[in-house]
Structures are given as C-alpha cells and as structure tokens.
C-alpha cells in the first residue's frame, strides 16, 4: 500500500506512462536524447505543478488558523531550546521561498521575539516545508525525505541557538529594534469560506512566483538527465571527489530558486551518479542562501550578523552533506 502511494499517487508513475505513450503516438523517439528530454520535462513539470497546487492549498488552509499575531503569541510562551524548536517547526508550515520569509522574520523580530527564535524560523522556512516533504517522498522515497527534514530542522535549531548565545541583538538594524509592537488584538475569526479563499489566494500567488523556477529547474534537470555525460557528474560530485559536498554548497549559495525548482535538478544529478550528500547540500544552499535573499536580509541586519548567519548555514549544510554521504547506503 505504501509503495502504491509513493509510486502512483505521489510519484505519479501513471502520468509518466501516459506521457510516454502520447509521445510515442506522436512519433517522438523517447529513447533519443531529445525525446527523453521532452519526456522528462513534461512529466516533471506536470507532476510538480499538480502536487504544488494541492499541497500549497492544503497547507495554506491550515496556516489560516495561525496568522502572524497568533503565531507570535504562541512562540512567546516558549523559552530556551524549546522556543528555537517552535520557531523551526513554524517554518515548516510556511510555504515561502527565502525572500518571502524575510518580511515575516522582520515582523517577528520587531515584535520582540528572541533573535535566535526568529533565525530558527528564517532558516527552516525556505529549507523545509510540508510541501517539499511530500515532493521529496515522490522522487527520493520516504527515508531520504524524512532525513532531509530532520537534518534541516537540526540546522535551524542549532543555528538559532548559536545566534541567541552570541547576543547579537545590537546587530539588528535600528528601525527594526526600535519598532513598537502593536496591541495584542485577537484576529477576527474566519469562516470556512474565508479560509478557502485565503488558501486559494496563497496557492495562486505562490504558483505564479514559483512556476518560472519550476520550468527552469526542470529544464536544467532534463539537460543533465539526457545530455551531460555520467562520467562528468561522477567526477565532479561522485565518490571520487571528497570535495564534492563543499563544491555543491558553494555553487548553490548565489543561485535563486524555490525548492520545487531545485528538486528536478537534484533528481537528475543523483541519477547521473552524484553522491546523495552533494545533491542535498546543493538543494539546501540554493533554497536557504540565495543572493537575492541575502541582499534583502542585509536591509534588516548589520554585516556582522549577516556573516554569522551565512557561516552557520554553510557549515551546517556541509556537515549535513557529509552525513548524508555516510548514510547513503541506508537511505538509498
């Protein structure tokens, strides 16, 4: 039953067969490079789009019960490592890219939440979410998906805890530290229809922002899958290169894409012989430390805090990458 759910419902293998049959009937040779690339592109774009829309709608409906004011009050009840865990877990239910997470991070920081808690949220929000968990299961299986989420939450909790203990509150820009939190007004209760409309708007808004990166990511994945020699990928990111994880992390940092756009690239790289740790480190780096998000974050924090944040994330992602490599025989 689980294999059926993973392969046919989440993985949509029936869709792959349907697309293959359609291309063959249209006279396309799916065994050729061009035909194989077209099959890979159509299958992944349609599959990711369907899963994205269903998942974002469901997650946004749940999120409607936890607006920022209520989330701030809930997180304010926790202290110490428990608060960092709550901040990281809150990030998993916010289907945002790194740039979209920063305004909420700024709002939480302005409201007086501990700096470490808000950074735990900022790390986990783009790196780990429920939507990506389901999509990871559909492509890599539940073991890798679960390990990815656990390692991502560990980075978020430890990273936020380190920042908290460094007492870098003065490294937040003055306009955020001096902001006065508004009165604790309980948000108006939403009707079921209001929540459905909110979920629909979140789904369409997220889809519009993410879809171009899905097209780019799947296009790159199709190129890697059918045009890049396997020996080249193995040489750069395979077991023979012990620096592959570090290289994948550093290459991923300046790039900007949603996790839904990076998963097809990771799928293609893994299929070509790249080590699991290098592939997942690349994914984490792209989604967490994109250059546009760092530029936006610089408006809220000073260079020292920004540098600490980047250093913690890079080191954590590299360590997790080597951890995945050590566990690859168990996970694959």
Summarize the structure.
It holds the Pfam family ArsP_1. With 332 residues, this protein is an all-alpha fold.
Description:
This protein has helices at residues 2-10, 13-25, 33-63, 68-75, 81-92, 98-110, 115-127, 130-140, 142-165, 174-177, 192-227, 230-237, 244-252, 259-271, 276-288, 291-298, 303-331. The protein has 17 helices and no strands. It starts with a helix and ends with a helix. The radius of gyration is 20 Å and the shape is globular. The longest helix has 36 residues, at 192-227. The protein is an all-alpha fold and 332 residues long. Helix 2 (13-25) packs antiparallel against helix 3 and helix 6 (98-110) runs parallel beside helix 16 (291-298). The chain has one domain (2-13, 43-171, 200-331). Helix content is 77%, strand content 0%.
Runs in which pLDDT lies below 50 for 5 or more consecutive residues are none
Radius of gyration: 20 Å
Average pLDDT rating: 81
Q: Please, how many helices?
A: 17
User: In terms of structural class, how would the helical and strand content be classed?
Assistant: mainly alpha
Return the domain count: 1
Helix content: over 70%
Distance between the termini: 20 Å
The count of β-strands is 0
Shape descriptor reads: globular
- SSE order: HHHHHHHHHHHHHHHHH
Query: What does the largest sheet look like?
Result: none
Family: Belongs to the UPF0718 family.
Organism: Megasphaera hexanoica
Subcellular location: Cell membrane
Pfam family, one: ArsP_1
Note the topology.
Layout: H1 2-10, H2 13-25, H3 33-63, H4 68-75, H5 81-92, H6 98-110, H7 115-127, H8 130-140, H9 142-165, H10 174-177, H11 192-227, H12 230-237, H13 244-252, H14 259-271, H15 276-288, H16 291-298, H17 303-331
Helix pairs in contact: 1-8, 2-3, 3-8, 3-11, 5-7, 5-9, 6-7, 6-16, 7-9, 7-15, 8-9, 8-14, 9-17, 11-14, 13-15, 13-17, 14-15, 15-17
């Amino acid at each position: 039953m689980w294999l059926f759910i993973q392969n046919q419902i989440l993985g949509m293998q029936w869709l792959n067969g349907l697309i293959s049959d359609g291309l063959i009937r249209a006279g396309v040779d799916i065994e050729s490079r061009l035909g194989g690339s077209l099959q890979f592109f159509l299958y992944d774009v349609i599959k990711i789009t369907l899963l994205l829309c269903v998942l974002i709608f469901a997650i946004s409906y749940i999120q409607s019960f936890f607006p920022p004011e209520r989330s701030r009050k809930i997180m304010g009840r926790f202290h110490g490592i428990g608060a960092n865990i709550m901040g990281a877990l809150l990030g998993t239910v916010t289907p945002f890219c790194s740039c979209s997470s920063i305004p909420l991070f700024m709002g939480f920081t302005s409201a007086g939440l501990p700096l470490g808690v808000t950074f735990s949220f900022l790390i986990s929000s783009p790196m780990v979410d429920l939507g990506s968990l389901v999509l990871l299961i559909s492509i890599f299986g539940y073991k890798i998906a679960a390990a990815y989420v656990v390692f991502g939450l560990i980075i978020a909790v430890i990273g936020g805890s380190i920042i908290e203990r460094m007492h870098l509150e003065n490294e937040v820009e003055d306009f955020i530290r001096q902001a006065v939190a508004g009165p604790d007004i309980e948000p108006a209760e939403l009707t079921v229809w209001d929540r459905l409309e909110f979920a629909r708007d979140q789904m369409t808004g997220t889809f519009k922002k993410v879809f171009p990166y899905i097209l780019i990511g799947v296009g790159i994945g199709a190129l890697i899958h059918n045009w890049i020699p396997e020996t080249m990928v193995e040489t750069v990111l395979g077991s023979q290169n012990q620096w592959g994880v570090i290289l994948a992390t550093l290459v991923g940092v300046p790039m900007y894409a949603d996790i839904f756009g990076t998963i097809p690239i990771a799928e293609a790289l893994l299929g070509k012989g790249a080590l699991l740790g290098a592939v997942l480190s690349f994914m984490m780096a792209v989604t967490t430390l994109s250059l546009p998000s760092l530029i936006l974050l610089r408006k809220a924090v000073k260079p020292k805090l920004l540098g600490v944040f980047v250093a913690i994330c890079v080191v954590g992602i590299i360590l997790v990458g080597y951890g995945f490599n050590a566990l690859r025989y168990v996970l694959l």
